[in-house]
Specification:
single chain, alpha+beta, Glutaredoxin, 2 domains, 9 helices, 6 strands
Length: 243
């Protein structure tokens, strides 16, 4: 091979390498641009989710149109109070049971100041949600809704995984414990009136946009307090606004 041929070959090889470098550089730039674009999109999506979460969180409220308090409601406190706190609950819902000590404290601390309303929203995945709701309403027919309500939540881990019949037996034992007429209780737990009441609460919740339990609505605004203090802050704000 002559010196000239060797030089030409080297020049050709250098040009090829330069082209490869240019092509690789362009490819890397395109990859970086695509990566940057997806990072920006991902960041925007995360920001959106975070914003929605915050809006629904402890510092946010969402307006909800719910049925006004009526004579069939289970109300603890002043029936015609200007401050109405509604809970849509499911007796078999673990989150509802976790909230219950806080809710009981709120009921105690604000008795005479607010109306606390419990409405049934039994979820389909909870097999004993309806029978426990019926039991509370049957107890309510004898003036002991709240006693049964509290006992059912307190014993959730006892009956939650039982068969229908055994869960009902537990409800009967609770009825006996709180001093109900058992014959009347057994009649009322199966009555159309009791079942219609539970269904009516559920239908009203669906109409209002309830889709989970517990859902708390304070004077027409959905709130999501994570502690007693946050609950208290929401209520105190409403009391101040309506004083």
């Amino acid at each position: 091979m002559t010196e000239e041929q060797s030089t030409n070959k080297e020049r050709y090889e250098l040009r090829r390498q330069e082209k490869d470098l240019v092509r690789d550089s362009a490819s890397k730039k395109r990859t970086l641009k695509r990566t940057a674009m997806w990072v920006l999109i991902a960041g925007a999506l995360i920001g959106s989710v975070f914003a929605v979460y915050n809006y629904g969180g402890s510092s946010g409220t969402t307006a909800m149109i719910v049925d006004a308090v009526n004579p069939t409601d289970r109300v603890f406190g002043i029936f015609d109070s200007k401050i109405v706190l509604i809970e849509y609950g499911d007796f078999q819902c673990p989150a509802c049971a976790q909230y219950e000590p806080i809710v009981q404290q709120i009921r105690t601390d604000y008795v005479g100041k607010i109306a606390f309303v419990y409405r049934h929203f039994p979820l389909s995945q909870h097999k004993n949600a309806k029978i426990t709701a019926y039991a509370s309403e049957a107890a309510g027919k004898q003036g002991k809704f709240w006693e049964m309500h509290d006992m059912i939540y307190d014993g959730q881990n006892v009956w939650a995984n039982l068969s229908d019949d055994k869960a009902r037996d537990v409800m009967t034992k609770y009825a006996e414990t709180i001093g109900l007429d058992l014959k009347l209780f057994e009649e009322q737990i199966d009555s159309g009136e009791v079942k219609n009441k539970v269904q009516s609460d559920n239908d009203g919740g669906l109409k209002a946009g309830v889709n989970a339990t517990p859902t708390f609505i304070l004077n027409g605004k959905k709130i999501q307090p994570r502690s007693y203090d946050e609950f208290k802050n929401f209520i105190e704000q409403e009391l101040a606004a309506n004083s």
